[in-house]
Here is the input.
Amino acid sequence: MVLSAAALLWIGRDQTIRGDNLEYATRIATQGVGHALLHTPANKYLIAVPLLVYRALFGIFGLNNYFPSRLLAIALVLISGGLFYALVRKHVGYVLAVVATVLLLFFGSGWEEVLTAIRLPSLIAVASGLGALLALGRRELLWDVVATALLCVAVASHPTGVAFTAAATVMVILSPAPERWKRVWVVLIPVAIFVAWYLIWRTTTPTLFPNTASDVFLFVRESWVMLCATVTGLSGVLPIPVYSQPIAEVVGALLFALLAAVTALRFRKLPPLYWAALLGLLVLLVSTRLSAGGFLRRPDEVRYLYPETVLFLLTFAGLAASVRLPRWVQAAVSVVLVLGIASNFAMLVNGGDVSRQKSQVTIGQLTAYRIAGDQVNPAYQPTPLDTTAGFDLAAMARFGSPALTPAELLDASALTRQSADKALVGSLGIHPQPTTKKPETTGPAPRVVNVAAGHARRQGGCSILSQAPASGTQSGRQLLAELSLPPAGVEVSARDLSSAHLYLGRFAPPSVPLRAVHGRFAILETPLADSSVPWKLRVGSDQSVAVCGLSG
Here is the structure.
């Protein structure tokens, strides 16, 4: 656990708030905690407990300090690992329990869960669910009260908590006959909480892609294959999608056959943990596909694999408890799990690189919104899954901003600067506007920064870009030039602008494509917003282009 904490801290370094974390911040900032706790957006989950946690983190540390959130996520990974070990040790012995736990502590297949704080709701549900299963094994009133409280936390944190509640229900039902009915309240209370939310506060919208039985069955089958590949290490060496590879399907079929055979032969000797974990895993897989966006989900998405693998390993731990495994079998299983650890560690390192890149993109976007200021389009979204610029600005106004200053942005990574340029162009609504006649262009001429192909000359307030002259039987080469624009913008003209390719940039070399323009003339207004850094335009064309400065 110490090695895991050190590895997760180092591999997941240099991250910032992004993704679902940013969405939660905007929800709390714009709705208030009371409304956000129960009145979830359309087709979203009950995550009341994590929202309270996020509210405390954002209120104390702000959005610009992501480290405390990551510390909490790592602590939950370690707690879940310790609880998992305590659950399986008495069923399979400490050797197999340690190896399986180490796999979860370095679980690169679910790197988003263990490296970032994005999946705090799921981590809270997993830790609470494991704690509840462990407490139920004590069969004492005090521990039943603890189990009830933990299950309430689980179902109010993430749908994963529903799967663990289903597992806990099996544990209670399989208690001795007189005892089981006295303990049923342990699961009825969390179930009542979830049902109340589901019937009263849940918001839904109709879906155009209803689930069918065959869709759900296919998702469960492919998820099973993916889990088998993840645990055995195959997911680290097979091409994506792993669950479609023949060798992964064979391994999945063999493990399923083993599960079915031992279940049939040792039916009466299987411990409650086996049936509990098996039902919990089935509920988790089915509910993942049955959710509103289930048709978009893939069995190999990193955000779902961690809780699935926890229940998958618990299932096989329960299965192994019914059979006395020879030492050579334990050794063989340990070798397979160690291969899985090695494969997952490699994916963990890759996940760290991905998380840093995504953090750089988010920092660029947030910085762009701060620079755009009042001129920003509040409805702008870089992608359909991102929060809007208006909501992001509201969250930064409430909890502080991780955005960079223009001077800091100039020194940032190329990816951050490119992301900022893209978000600036989009949130400011910059695009060429066609016009039927040549406008007044009394402003300063754009400064030619570079001409990669062709040549340039200044004529009044314009820079005239021409193709390189033809040589021999070859026609003129494609024009490619970069210009620094005057404050008000430019007018671009050519014989036919539809053949010209225009790219805009400000803090990075021009890389943001502008939409094509039909006609001879177009105006490109480029507001400077909260920075004096000039815009840059890259022009590619197979004909001469004039770029003239606008007045104002």
Q: What stands out?
A: The chain has three domains: 2-356, 357-428, 433-549.
